Amino acid sequence: MSLRWHLLLLTIVFFGVGVAESFAMRKHDPGSPTYYIVMWMIPGVLFTILTVRAFVKPKGNQQER
Q1: In the chain, how many domains are there?
Q2: Closest Cα partner for 26 from 38, 42, 15, 37?
Q3: What are the TM regions of this chain, as residue ranges (predicted)?
Q4: Global pTM?
Q5: Is 38 part of a structural domain of the chain?
Q6: Which of 3, 7, 27, 4 lies closest to 15 in space, CA to CA?
Q7: Which of 1, 15, 42, 59 could hold 5 in an S-S bridge, CB 3.0 to 4.6 Å?
Q8: Is 58 helix (H, G, I), strand (E, B) or coil?
């Protein structure tokens, strides 16, 4: 597997765990789901940005002079 597929997998894992944790903790502590969403979504957003940059190729042949 290439790096970009690993990034895509990590993105899915972080978002999935964040949502699952927030739903699981809703019964035990009503105030904590936001904390779990934020805690897992911040790395999720970071990996999303890295994944998009890895999959989207720059347009044309841009050569620096």
Answers
A1: 1
A2: 37
A3: 36-56
A4: 0.55
A5: yes
A6: 7
A7: 1
A8: coil
